[in-house]
Predict the structure.
Amino acid sequence: MSGNSLEEGVMLQLKNPSHLDVGRVAVPAGVVLGLIVYIALGVFIPPLGWLPKILAGLLVGVPVSASIYRRMTEKRMKAEQARLFEERALRIEETERQLARMKANENA
């Protein structure tokens, strides 16, 4: 029974917009990079206090996360624009075909 409910839950989540959220990639990437900087500073400069290491991690992680978020959002927006332009072109083409068919029926 639990397998069936799990499957139904997954099927309901397939079109959930949160699965496509760019922040699900950008934020963890920034956090991981910030932690790497924090650990690297702890390894290479041990006497450095915890506050400068945290600040260095934030100064690296936050801009990288924002950059990833911005790039992925722009890429998604460009793809959406291309899809909309293609859809609009198809509608215009279909309308022109219908108008030509109507004119041909009027003249016949």
Q: What stands out?
A: The chain has a mean pLDDT of 86. Residues 3 and 9 are 10 Å apart (CA to CA).
